[in-house]
Design brief:
alpha+beta
């Protein structure tokens, strides 16, 4: 009885391998793409490396600036700067949960960023946009815990804004005609 089970398991595994080998090449012809593949084409990646990020004031701005630079040129390759990205960042705090005594229990960080992609050669604005991110945090009796939670919420907002700007610029640069530059 145990020999039959072993054979049937081996047979099932063998059939699975055969099916995978037979059907895997067919996936390439049907437009299938891996879900987590890098969406940047080589053209867009080269264009992204050519973006110079202008300094952004304050700590959250510095975090966004560094994140954008790392996203545009993760390998730190030398590239001629063809574009300049200017980002204006604003951040506000609010209390959303309030106890009957008037003390806050929940805080919210709102971050807004307006951006402009400028072509350096012509000083023409190629794209502009607005991005908003919101994250919340608990307000604790311990002030230090609240500050740490607020900073974490700010970092999450910065990351969300960074991802959105990178995605928008990648899509824009993928659709841009390289001959038009």
């Amino acid at each position: 009885m145990s020999i039959d089970r072993t054979i049937s398991r081996r047979g099932i595994v063998a059939l699975a391998w055969i099916a995978m080998l037979v059907f895997a090449p067919a996936l390439g012809g049907c437009g299938w793409e891996p879900l987590y593949a890098d969406p940047q084409t080589p053209v867009a990646a080269a264009e992204l490396r050519a973006i110079k990020v202008a300094p952004i004031p304050e700590r959250a701005g510095q975090q966004l600036e560094m994140g954008l630079r790392e996203s545009f040129n993760p390998d730190h390759q030398d590239a001629k700067q063809l574009y300049q990205l200017t980002v204006t960042l604003s951040r506000s705090l609010s209390t959303t949960g309030i106890q009957s005594q008037g003390l806050g229990t929940r805080g919210q960080v709102n971050m807004s960023a307006s951006y402009q992609l400028l072509e350096l050669a012509t000083r023409r604005v190629l794209q502009s946009g607005f991005v908003h991110a919101t994250d919340s945090f608990d307000i604790q009796a311990n002030g230090y815990s609240t500050v740490v939670a607020q900073n974490d919420a700010t970092k999450r907002d910065v990351e969300e804004v960074r991802r959105e700007i990178v995605a928008r610029l990648t899509i824009f640069l993928q659709g841009k005609d390289p001959a038009a530059s």
